[in-house]
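Human: If only I could read backbone structure tokens as easily as an amino acid sequence. Underneath my words sits a plain record pairing an amino acid chain with its backbone structure tokens. Take your time, and here it is.
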Amino acid sequence: MEGEDSKTLNIDEFETMFRRNHQFLCAVAMQYVHDQFAAEDMVQDFFIDFWQRRHTIQLTTSFEAYARRAVKYKCIDFLRKSAVTEKRNSMLAALEEEQEHHDEQEYNEIRHQRYIKIVELIQKLPENRQNIFIMHAVDKMSYAEIAKKQNISINTVKTQLSRAYSALRNHAILVLVAFSSLSGRF
């Protein structure tokens, strides 16, 4: 095509150029991208670009030389963009991992603070009610076992536990609301 005016290129001539050079240009692209599908995409992009700009392209060398150089630059651009994308993806993965670690630490810290608050609330209960609550909630003792051990009636155990749970529930809700507003998610 050297010396030919590309402005007069018609679709039949273009198709002939495509058929004559497609495999050769795919082989050129394969040298750079090492991926058959990517290489075919590079060559296809070249031909589309060449067809769209056929009125403005002035060939000073043969079409084959021009096409080889253009495909080579498309491949280099593709590799550059792929490297940038890969670098961004690895940076994003590292940031996500760091954020997950930070979130986990924050979650554990908030759980620990809640635990401390609950223990503090239990310690604020009257001593007898506190003992009954611990025997029931921590030691998993039945009402009858607690009553026997404390030498009180089962109804007294139920009343003490009801008052303990009520007090803890009221304070615990306030604690949870306070932690929820601090963390914004719990």
Notes: Helices lie at 11-33, 36-52, 63-124, 127-137, 143-150, 154-183. Residues 63-124 form the longest helix (62 residues). Confidence is low (pLDDT under 50) at residues 1-6.
